[in-house]
Design a protein that fits this description.
Layout lengths: L32 E4 L5 H6 L8 E5 L2 H22 L12 E5 L2 H8 L5 E7 L17 H10 E11 L2 H13 L3 E4 L1 H18 L2 H8 L5 E7 L6
Parallel strand pairs: 1-2, 1-4, 2-3, 4-5
Antiparallel strand pairs: 5-7, 6-7
The structure holds S-adenosylmethionine (SAM).
The site of S-adenosylmethionine has 20 residues, from strand 2, helix 3 and helix 7.
Length: 230
Amino acid sequence: SDHSLDYPLSPQDIDWAQYYPELAAGTGKVPEFADVGCGFGGLLIALAPLFPDTLLLGLEIRVQVSQYVQDRINALRVAATAESSSTDKPPHSFQNVSIVRANAMKFLPNYFGKHSLSALFFLFPDPHFKSRKHKARIISPTLLAEYAYVLRPGGIVYTITDVKDLHEWMKKHLTEFPLFEPVDEETLRSEGKGPIIDAVYHSTEEGRKVESNKGEKWLACFRRIQVSRS
Ligand code: SAM
């Protein structure tokens, strides 16, 4: 249960410098990429060097798993610091990646302000197969309103799963929601988001497991649309 977790009352109450000491202290920078249910952090670690000026945040509900990711990031930061003193070309410092232990289904707007995100990832989410459990799915009409709130117009929701039924479910709900429009992989690649797509397919621990089991993966991406006010 998440009852014992402390949550920030609002994004304004968060001191991001505690998560990104070198990049957020005194800069007002906030996370722009959020990996919901980040698991062991493979996507975050893969993307961090590709987007050195962007703050990436993982949200993970499991205590030990989130602690593991925290330790992993700390170790990468320490290794980079050690290495940078011995080389001319400094390695990526992993100062732009962090994690919180959080129930993303309940508290996403406590972490992210309106239109603050440019990318939101739902990679191999728990499928909750039984229909009475569908309300536990991370993509649902109520939650989509929150995702549309935290994503800026033009921002992208990336989903991928090896469960065909869940893929259809996510696609259906996102397509039906008025603030999202489907965007295909080719279009995203033509916009320079190929490295993100590649990481979505191949860099998460769950994605790698699916690969070694020769399973199929279904990708579905959506753009947060701009609503014109008249
Ligand atoms: N995205 C990772 C990957 O592709 O390797 C992990 C996939 S794993 C099947 C799903 C993850 O979502 C688990 O680590 C689980 O603990 C986490 N999770 C489930 N519900 C969550 C919630 N409400 N908030 C945050 N994390 C959640």
